[in-house]
Amino acid sequence: MASSDQEPGPTPLAGGGEGPTPPGQPTTMGSKLLDKGAKMLQSMKPVRQLQQHACSFALYAHDHTRQIETHLYISRLNQNFLQCPIYDSDDPLAHLIGVEYIVAENIFETLPPEEQKLWHSHAYEIKSGLWVHPRVAEMIAKPELKWLTKTYGKFWCTWQVDRGDRVPLGTPALMMSPQGVNSGQVRPDLLKSRDDKYKMSSEELKESRLEIEEPEWLNPNADYWKQHGKGFGLDVLETDMKHMTPFP
Amino acid sequence: MASSHVEVPGEATETSTAVVETATGIIQSFAPINQIHQHLCAFHFYADDMTRQVEAHHYCAHLNEEVRQCLIFDSSKADAKLIGVEYIISPMLFLALPEEEKPLWHSHEYEVKSGVLFMPDLPLSVQRMDLEKVVKTYGKTFHFWQVDRGDALPLGLPSIMMALTRDGQLYDHLAKDVENRFEISFEKERENRAYMSGPEHGIHPLANGAGKGLKLELRDIDLPPLDSFPRIFV
Hints:
Oligomer: heterodimer
Protein name (chain A): Oil body-associated protein-like protein
Low-confidence stretches of chain A: none
Organism (chain B): Dioscorea alata
Largest interface: A-B, 123 and 117 residues
Number of helices of chain B: 7
Protein name (chain B): Oil body-associated protein-like protein
Structural class of chain A: alpha+beta
């Protein structure tokens, strides 16, 4: 079955090509009306907690040449923990491409090493102006940026839209954060396209963030590739299902 | 009983942080999130372990008439944990998937027809208008946070999740707990949904793990030598 680092098997649903992603009839008026009704009557509390929008970049852990612009919609569970659905744009019909969890460094240090290697640091992204909060003045975002600089994230990508998958295919892929060295650097054309869209300059932001304090140290288990030259793939294996009644 | 009682480690949100979030919540645009129009409650179990069952609150948006994308939380409360995602597609799109992909997807026919999958706070007749479509669809679900084993943080690898496919799988206590909290009866609703029909050509034999258990494993991959990359920034 399609591992995270392998191309999907033959299908009109991969490899890009003509037609929208995903394929299908546009949402009908009937569905929209049902949706409107549902939204009015149902309480959507967990979703209403998504109170911040951030835009940054990520790399596939198994292939740093594949870089994507990410849109995080952030919900804070407490002072030290964020949970974020991630989309590939800020359009209404943006694709849900994964989930990232963000923890403060003190929480990160409690994780076992095997777990830590699935996580990435945020200091470089913030300091270099890659990570932005669209439409929010730097001054307002500053406290949050200062906090984020000393955090670690874990990001599973569930839809590889960038390679042309028209529906989500294969297993989740682990993602890494941009870093200031080697293959961790974001391609200038990607950055420019983002900056132009929001009429901002990462260079300028980098200047204004000089004063933000770096973490005292970065755990070497995070950003695992930097010290070990390895990425990760996820494979699906058949196994015996533990069950107490027949399946399927 | 719903969500895990385990607390996520960390201090309570500071006022200054909350103030920033109120500001960003008002100023910024949340277009993809605003598309989320529907709350759906169902159960998932681990694709390698039917004995581990999780109440799953889906918050769903249409990308088009044939594809939905959902955020999965462990409860419907403000402090719910984001535990996974689900994608829902029409039978037509399912058929177009590569053969090796199909086992990762599960059918929805049983969950809908049995009444176990429902939309809290919506009149039942209105629910049925949408569920007539959902009953034919297939879903692909990954969970990232094993709240059912008491994890205080999202640890480890993602899990492929499956959905109920027949009577006798769902634990009574989980069913009763949901029925009580949401004041509904699965049995009664099952009668009302008897008229619904699943995918036109029946449930595809490769769906639902092709009847097998599935699990994910991590593999190391050697990256090209680190110094083979030119410095991009001056």
